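Collaborator request, handled under Task 6.
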Amino acid sequence: MLKLHTKLHALTPALASNLRPGVRELGESVAQGGAEFAQGLDSEE
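Structure tokens returned to the collaborator:
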């Protein structure tokens, strides 16, 4: 179990650096969608 954890821990930085651009894009699109949704709610009132 400990060996698996050590391997996983060693892989995490590489995974994070590979995923970071995609995660940032996803976060931005979600934030933009949320802002547009909030604007839509505001304009209905």
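The cover message to the collaborator said: "The two ends are 56 Å apart (CA to CA). The CA atoms of residues 23 and 39 lie 24 Å apart. Please let us know whether this matches your experimental observations."
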